[in-house]
Amino acid sequence: MDAIKKTITRKVVNSKGGKVCLSGGSMETWQASIETKPVIVRRAIENITFFIQSDKIPELSEIALARVREKINEAIETYIQMNVHNGCMNRTSPSFNWVANVDDDSCAPPEQNSQFGGFIRTCTEDKRLKQCIQVGVKDVDVKSIFADRRATSFSNEEEAQIKTTGVIPFLVETRLRELGAKSISRLTRMAFCNSSEAEPTTIWLNKDTDDRIKNSNKKIEKQLDSFGNRLKIFYDENECIDYILQMNEITGKKFALYLSASTGRELVPMIYDWPQIEIIFVFYLYEKEKELWAKKYPKVRL
Fold it and tell me: Fewer CB atoms near the end CB (10 Å): N or C, the chain?
């Protein structure tokens, strides 16, 4: 070992915590200084209060055990607060802080070189945050909406924009109905973004077997024909769910889901929070159900 040490021509020592490690200093001296200037390199804390149970400490009452857990949790929180060092933890950043053990987003951006009066910059778009300039309901019958002046609650500026573009800013269904958009055909063509790529794929899940409901669903299908190739029809619930999950994973697309009341009562509570589904339309609910669902499921249109 001594022979190996003699062949060392350059030695680099990095330390975290304790005193600054100077040339010629011993390891023992540095280790002794850690007690006064500790720095956490990596923190992993188990919930040690889990082991404070009556079967493991039978001599203490439940009240006493609860107080012990509280004191231990307070001690842990104090230890963490006293040993957190905020700073930039990105080694490639010019503001990298080697003492920091918690990143506080203080890293300085990379320096930019200006050439011929311009800047070289690389941009990466996040597919989950697609740019959307205009959100609204399009392809509506504008003339019929403005025919009844009592139903109009837009300002003059909004009215001029709607008549010019044919797009109504996205509102809840109740206000659309007040504006005269009473037929489903005026509510089905949703323009979530001004880009056709960002529009959600429309899915009609028709799994009802009752003849009376099937006849009503056929009327809905005819009104959904205007979606063309963007409309997918499923008669099996599992196939529909598999398609949504697989296509979202592959393409990142989101979906507008159309359901009858019977299917919606069963399916909406299970899939309402799914990020893959942009909006859900449910038809033929009872009036009392509509009031309840409007509060419970804001993503659902009735």
Answer: N
Residues 107-116 as b/e (b if ≥16 CB within 10 A, e otherwise) read: beeeeeeeee
Check if the beta carbon of residue 1 is closer than 8 Å to that of residue 16. Answer: no
Distance separating alpha carbons of residues 293 and 5, to the nearest angstrom: 76
Spell out the SS3 assignment of 245-284.
HHHHHHHCCCEEEEEEHHHHHHHHHHHCCCCCEEEEEEEC
CB 167 within 8 A of CB 160: no
CA distance 21 to 39: 14
143 contacts: CB under 8 Å, gap ≥ 6? none
Q: Can you say how many angstroms the Cα of residue 121 is from the centroid of all Cα atoms in its chain?
A: 27
Helix H or strand E segment including 169 = strand 167-169
How confident is the model over 90-131, as pLDDT tens digits? Answer: 888 888 888 888 888 888 776 655 555 555 555 555 555 554
Residue with tokens 């919606």: 264
Asked whether 191 and 230 are in contact (CB, 8 A), the reply is no
- Both tokens of residue 97? 């802080």
Q: Which helix (H) or strand (E) holds 287?
A: helix 287-296
pLDDT per residue as tens digits for the range 161-209: 556 555 555 443 444 444 444 433 333 333 334 444 445 678 888 777 6
Helix or strand run (H / E) with residue 204: strand 201-205
